[in-house]
Write a structure and sequence with these properties.
Rossmann fold; single chain; alpha/beta; about 240 residues
Length: about 240
């Protein structure tokens, strides 16, 4: 895989993945490839399997059957501790409600992601400050989440997700809890990250987010990929 051109490298591969909860199949035989540098949006009605798809790719849920490979790691072969390490090193995650730690200031919320992989605190804080600077909120590094606006909290969450230079950035409704202006800013940020080469997979109900930020749209219905199409990239 390392000998392939980076634009041809498959970062995510799902082969006939099923995920069942009791008698219900949240994923009913999904096969999918995402290549390095792609920005892919997943849409569909509530309960169709979008979030389950994100969770199995992140190693948060194990599929009932099928195989998932992310950046060369066969997730089915990893132990629970191996999956935890995989998430810390390979995956960045952005959530609708930010999932920041309320008792830590912004800088420490970001730095913690690297410290959990064994990076020294001083080194982690240095990179965290650089990321906050790149995202335009270095002046809020000592602020606690409760004192930040929604847009600022999502920028802190994005910085945290980028801390370990992930092969894949997963975003679950990244603009869902934001006002329209903050949502636009986060969309611009996602576009910039993708243009710099970051591979993105987004779950969203917002067609504007998909149209603006994604190069490919996947529509999920009843646990299956119903439609798939390329999207024009907007400058």
């Amino acid at each position: 895989m390392t000998s392939e051109n980076s634009t041809d490298q498959v970062v995510v591969r799902l082969d006939n993945v099923r995920k069942e909860f009791g008698d219900a199949a949240a994923l009913a035989g999904v096969s999918l490839e995402i290549r390095a540098g792609e920005s892919v949006a997943v849409m569909g009605p509530s309960g169709c399997g979008k979030s389950t798809l994100l969770n199995v790719i992140a190693g948060l849920d194990r599929p009932t059957s099928g195989t998932i490979t992310v950046h060369g790691d066969d997730l089915g072969s990893l132990s629970e501790s191996g999956l935890a390490l995989f998430r810390r090193r390979r995956i960045g995650m952005i959530f609708q409600f930010f999932n920041l730690l309320d008792d830590l200031p912004a800088l420490d919320n970001v730095a913690l992601a690297a410290q959990l992989t064994g990076v020294k605190a001083s080194q982690a804080r240095k990179r965290a400050l650089e990321l906050l600077g790149e995202l335009g909120i270095a002046d809020r590094k000592n602020a606690y989440p409760a004192t930040l606006s929604g847009g600022q909290r999502q920028r802190v969450a994005v910085a945290r997700a980028l801390m370990n230079r992930p092969a894949l950035l997963l975003a679950d409704e990244p603009t869902g809890a934001l006002d329209s202006q903050s949502g636009e800013q986060v969309m611009d940020l996602l576009i910039d990250l993708n243009q710099m080469g970051q591979t993105l997979l987004m779950v969203t109900h917002d067609p504007r987010l998909a149209e603006r930020c994604a190069s490919r749209l996947i529509e999920v219905e009843d646990g299956r990929i119903a439609h798939e199409r390329s999207l024009a990239q907007h400058a």
